[in-house]
Design a protein that fits this description.
Layout (H helix, E strand, L loop, with lengths): L23 E3 L2 E23 L4 E6 L6 E2 L4 E6 L2 H36 L4 H33 L2 E3 L4 E5 L7 E2 L4 E17 L11 E6 L2 E10 L7 E8 L10 E17 L4 E3 L2 E8 L2 E15 L2 E8 L6 E3 L4
Antiparallel strand pairs: 1-18, 2-9, 2-13, 3-5, 3-8, 4-7, 5-6, 7-9, 9-12, 10-11, 10-13, 11-12, 13-17, 14-15, 15-16, 15-18, 16-17
Helix pairs in contact: 1-2
């Protein structure tokens, strides 16, 4: 049977009133929590791709993996050379329409003069006025079309959709990209641990459960933030939130210990156990006599600054263990 690591915060040391104050300890079963060690992956809460809004050539790329960016920060620039030709065509069309408008306005002015002299008719004047209005409408349409093309040119800038860390950059400078293609992926909104637990443990898990994390700097505390209802390949997916989680490496594996239930165990202070001849002994007071009893110790842990040892066999609970002064 594998040994179970017990968290400090969930071990309770129970001393009945019958326990001796000096050198004695009543071995009483204590409820402890069983923990299952699994590996969790550091993931970003939000992972959003920064996509190209314009098809063309990526002429500038300023983002690299690991960069910290703010929402709206330019990550690269895409240039579509056809846009310059389209703008030139629109400008030529506007120049042509401008000449037509000048001529139509001159015709309208002559028509008004002739009408005032009684040489022309009101119908001919209305026709000239309509021609001017049509050309003005065509000019307005071309100007609107030019603004659309100019907006397309500005969309060549690839912007960070959220604030966070650049996780991946799948393209390189000089590459030809299509509209909607991913230029970089940004992870933001905070980071959490995602764990995968065998489904047989699903009924023992609950949102809000306290968990422990083994990190390079020591043990950290966290809680079970979310349990997903869909089981994938026989495993339950859950998210664990940890304060000040080190997110230097996304998808890094971190050892997580999840509560899987409770049981009763007998805990003794480590200094009450003596070892000699390869065996572990405790001194038990029974009917006024001191008896040496062989035990099998288990996991050691710290409880309120005292090193405690779980007794696997040798004590059934209720015995008074005293210090061996020899």
């Amino acid at each position: 049977m594998k040994s179970i690591i017990l968290p400090l915060a969930l071990l309770a040391l129970v001393l009945p009133q019958g326990a001796k104050a000096e050198g004695g300890f009543v071995a009483t079963p204590t409820e402890v929590t069983d923990w299952k060690a699994v590996y969790g992956r550091v993931e970003a809460k939000d992972s959003i791709p920064a996509r190209a809004r314009l098809g063309g050539t990526l002429v500038e790329l300023s983002a690299t993996e690991g960069d910290l960016v703010q929402a709206g920060t330019p990550l690269g620039t895409i240039v579509d050379e056809k846009i310059a030709f389209q703008l030139g065509a629109v400008d030529a069309q506007l120049e042509s329409l401008g000449a037509q408008l000048t001529n139509a306005q001159a015709e309208l002015a002559r028509g008004e003069t002739l009408l005032s002299r009684g040489v022309s008719t009101a119908q001919q004047l209305d026709s000239l006025r309509t021609a001017v209005n049509v050309i003005e409408g065509q000019i307005a349409a071309q100007q609107a079309q030019r603004k659309v093309i100019e907006q397309q040119a500005t969309e060549g800038a690839v912007l960070a959709p959220i604030s966070g860390r650049v996780l991946s950059v799948p393209v390189a400078k000089g590459a030809v990209v299509m509209a909607g293609e991913t230029v970089a992926t940004i992870g933001g909104g905070g980071f959490f641990l995602r764990v995968s637990v065998p489904e047989r443990h699903a009924h023992t898990m609950a949102e809000g459960d306290a968990i422990t994390i083994e990190t390079a700097t020591g043990t950290a505390e966290g809680h079970l933030a979310k349990i997903y209802p869909q089981i994938e390949n026989g495993r339950v997916i859950a998210d664990v939130e940890v304060a000040d989680l080190d997110a230097s490496y996304v998808d890094a594996r971190v050892l997580v210990r999840l509560p899987m239930g409770t049981r009763e165990a007998i805990l003794l202070p480590a200094d009450l156990i003596k070892t000699h001849s390869g065996l572990d002994f405790v001194m038990v007071e029974q009917d006024g006599a001191m008896l040496e009893r062989v035990i099998v110790p288990g996991t050691r842990t710290q409880v309120d600054g005292v090193e405690m040892v779980e007794i696997v066999t040798g004590l059934s609970g209720g015995e008074t263990v005293v210090r061996d002064e020899q």
